[in-house]
Amino acid sequence: MSQEWNIRSRGHFCSFCGQPLVDNSPLISALKETVGGYERFDCHPECWKTAERDWEAFSQWDGVYLAPRKEEKKEALKKEDAGELLRKLMTLDDPAMKNVVYVLAVMLERSRILVERDAKELGDGTIRRVYEDRKQGDTFVILDPRLRLENLGEVQQQVVALLSGTKTLGEVAQEEEAGDIPAGEPDANEEPQSAAD
């Protein structure tokens, strides 16, 4: 699959029976891998159990359906900016920004805006992490670039520069391409580190 990341919105009707999903009711969500990306399914638990499927889910999780609500109060500006920036970068689908996309997702996970639902290691050794927006229900499939601890500070500085407006996406993309921050497995003697640490 050529895409390094993917966004899929939560459905408001059961993918199998077509009935509306009810606010605060149990929900099964799943991603099906297709040639063009991922197809998302949201359904009643009983429909998931009884529906005939000729495919295996790439990722599947239990949740609770939350009906869309109008925002009563704006969240802190930085959190909104980080979420908007993540969506914008994912729409651009620029492989040079994979490190920035991953660090933004981890920041949003630490801020409890995103929740990691799954992590899949694919045949080529890459890891795709499945995140879900807690409020909006959108699913993000993001490549884990396996950043090394010594490179994390530089990527975090790039994220801060983008959020503060001191650098443009183009400037950061050029830095990424020029510096080509290496990713890879941690050394055998090194403790694995998450971008959140």
Question: Please, could you describe this protein's structure?
Answer:
This protein has 197 residues and is α+β, with helices and mostly antiparallel strands. The protein has two domains: 11-64, no CATH class; 77-179, no CATH class. It is built from five helices and seven strands. It has helices spanning 45-50, 77-92, 98-110, 149-164, 169-179, and strands at residues 5-8, 26-34, 37-43, 59-64, 114-121, 127-133, 139-144. It has a four-stranded antiparallel sheet with strand order 1-7-6-5, with helices on one face. A three-stranded antiparallel sheet has the order 3-2-4. A hairpin with a 2-residue loop joins strand 2 (26-34) and strand 3. Helix 2 packs antiparallel against helix 3 and helix 3 crosses helix 4 (149-164). The chain is globular, with a radius of gyration of 18 Å. Mean pLDDT is 81; it is low at 74-80 and 182-197.
Shape by Cα distribution: globular
Radius of gyration: 18 Å
Kindly report how far apart the N and C termini lie. Answer: 30 Å
Q: Can you give the helix content as a percent range?
A: 25-40%
* Strands ordered across the widest β-sheet: 1-7-6-5
For the biggest sheet, the summary is: 4 strands, antiparallel
How is the quaternary structure best described? single chain
Contiguous helical run count: 5
Total number of distinct structural domains? 2
Chain-averaged pLDDT: 81
